[in-house]
Amino acid sequence: MTEIDTSVPHSARIWNYWLGGKDNYPVDEAAGDAYTAVFPGIVTIARSSRAFLGRSIRYLVTEGGVRQFLDVGTGLPTVDNTHEVAQRLAPESRIVYVDNDPLVLAHARALLTSTSEGVTAYEDLSLYEPGKILEAASRTLDLSRPTALILSGILGHVADYDRARELVRSLLAGLPSGSYLCVNDGSRGTDPDYENAQDSYNETGAVPYFLRPVDKIEAFFEGLELIEPGVVSVPLWRPEPSDEEPRPIGQHGGVGRKP
Fold this sequence. Notes:
Blueprint: H1 11-18, H2 26-38, H3 42-62, E1 68-72, H4 82-89, E2 94-99, H5 102-111, E3 119-124, H6 130-137, E4 148-152, H7 161-173, E5 180-188, H8 192-202, E6 212-213, H9 214-218, E7 225-226, E8 232-233, E9 251-257
Parallel strand pairs: 1-2, 1-4, 2-3, 4-5, 5-6
Antiparallel strand pairs: 5-9, 7-9, 8-9
């Protein structure tokens, strides 16, 4: 197994730190604090992305009738992981998580538990291996039945936009009619301070994450039926009645159904 390097900051551990998790190291806290010093709103973006994930899964279970989830690039387990949200509403839900980070692997097997009625599995694979992902997922999921593909904060790590779209298409091609795509990613055009902070971070030599214009995030849903309200800043996607007045941030997402 790949050695976990604790001497350099790591994006998944920094994200975990911003979410209030404990699976990070002083080097990650230092990098996270340096980023928030430049752009304090990154914590709101991280937590709003997580809240969107929860709301979208609740929609998929309660209104979409989905009971199978393929979560690629899951990141470190925190609160309200995909299986927890889905199985709270439908205990029989089956979830496959996919990531190829040794730290995520180390924690996933211990933390990603399941209800007795459902199943949760973890596959140590890369987003760049869609064929292998589908093959591995088929050991846990019935891919002849509707499945929700979750890509939360992962596509921005794919530098080549055309490659990112190709990966989404390849994964969706292995899922039947009635399946769903759920994407949320960092966006351009809403918050210049966020864009400047992220561009500067990308120049530090850390693993880069590329913010994209909203129309490029929308294009991931080409050929799908977008669920209202479409691709919007994540706080504006079906907010809970109890939520404070949602304000747009530089993170956009949506849910689409495969016809």
